[in-house]
Amino acid sequence: MSVLSKLEKIEKFLPEKGRSLYLKQIQYAIYKRGTVDFMQMTTIPLVLRQKLKQEIGEVLSLKNIWEVSGGQAHKVLFETESKDRIEAVRMLFKPESDDSYESLCISSQSGCALGCKFCATGAIGFKKNLTSEEITDEVLYFKSKKFAVDSISFMGMGEPLSNAENVFEALKILTDKDFFNLGDRHINVSTVGIVPQIRRLTKEFPQVNLAFSLHSPFPEQRAQLMPVTNSYPIDKVFEALDERIKLTKRRIFLAYLLLAGVNDSLEQAKALADLIKKRGPHSYLYHVNLIRFNPGPEEKVFKKAERETVDGFKKYLEENKISVSLRQSFG
Asked: Is this structure's pTM higher than 0.90?
């Protein structure tokens, strides 16, 4: 179901006379003002508001069943109408300057089928692809609470490019001036490397930011950690990434999760630097995002890399002229 389906559902209960105007007013109330209660849409008659409330009930397709906030993170557990669960996280970034901004990390699937060994979502297994309505309703929920939405990252549950049709529809809605009107450059899509859909993203959304979850420069090790490597080898992924950079002249982010004793050695740092340098004249447009592993309470295999090791890994990349940063941790 798409957002258009949501509006089509509403349209069925609107009177023939004035239908087009009412629909525009309702669309504006929902997507521009963040009003998700029909009774609060005061630009339409009370009788019509009551009818919509009675016939449709809730505007949002998601139900907040649990939330927690503290420090710079605000996590919400949603339940879909099919009783599947997903998470979304609102994050407040406070850089060294006085400016701060808010970002939403949203899900594209409930669970995930890819089985990355270090990922808690992968351990759940695949439940369902989210519809474009469910994806964008994650954003609408926070908008309805009057929180700023400065940027959006598809880095929550699931692999976005494994749910391509719904994610691409969601991208259209998020960037449409009549809906959320977000700039393409304020949206980030993370992928483990689904090559055909990377090329589609380059064609349809060249200005959307792309992050590739690499996590190891060695194909054999990466295949052990991330079985998807067997379908989409590292060299084939980088061919698609190189094509994107040549076309857009924009940075691509390489996510690298540091796992103690697994992929955090200077040998791996050297191989990572060499892999990036092979990109030739566009190598400077690859930016490494180092990520500290946060083990869950039941994690028994992987451990968090020591701070000294993290610093040494980062320093090696810097000394070899690789663009790198250590991602801010939100727990």
From this structure: yes
